[in-house]
Amino acid sequence: MRRPSPVELMLLATIVLWALNVSVTKYILEHGVAPLAYATIRYGLAALIFVVLALFAERSLRIARRDLARVAFAALTLAVNQLCFVFALDLTTASTIGLLLGAIPIFAALFGLALGTERASERFWVAALVSFAGVSLVAAGAGQSFSGDIGGIALGLATAATWAAYSVILAPLMNAYSPTRVSAIVIPATWVLIASTGLEQTRGQSWSLDWQIWPLLAFATVGPLVLTNILWFKSIHRIGANRATLAANLEPFLAAMLAVILLSEPFGILELAGGLLIGAGLVIMRRGTPAAQPT
Prior knowledge:
- The chain is mostly helical.
- The protein has helices at 6-30, 35-58, 68-91, 94-100, 104-115, 122-144, 150-170, 179-197, 199-203, 213-239, 241-247, 251-263, 269-287.
- Helix 5 crosses helix 7.
């Protein structure tokens, strides 16, 4: 049996941390932290960590002038992604959002088509149709439960789409800079956008919270944000954005199952069928993608 390659281990760690983050964020939002206040504090801490790491490791935050527009666009995309994520979780269940994130590879491929880096094969369109049929079933299943909300589902899909766009936008920068340096520029810029948007909500936030919220907030910052940004973009640098997003097809079910186990969320037959269809679409598309070489 072949031993996992370093890039496979990096992707596995990223997937597990992301899956946990869906339930952790939902728990924090349900226990007194407003969505924009949560995003502001989390990204503010992450920005500080990345700047310190980059200065310690590389002694520089320099980005070439020709890359500044891409950095700005990436920061804007990530800010929208995070706002969609926290409000989606505020409106519907973590298990539903976890399943909807399974559409990320399809969105990544669609963006690749738009940019001319991907070719539209018959297999891809079959995969896209199957996956979006799964998304429809997940939406229908969520709508049958008391927690289902069409706004939350729409924001969940927007979260998947904007994360795919962010990965595609940032991938070329990994040829010139380390993930730490890129994150030390993009994350603070993203924080400025989030903090500006959430200023009123953050000012009105009461920080008299249950003690367990603070270690969970630290975990959500250091693990699923700081560590995964480094691991994810190192993976993208080695195998490309589209292959990396394909490898992440374990996350949706893992995130949904963790939400059911940790948060005791409802999970019906339609959500299960939808999740299976999303996964089937990814398998169809993956079989048409050449396997990455072990590194």
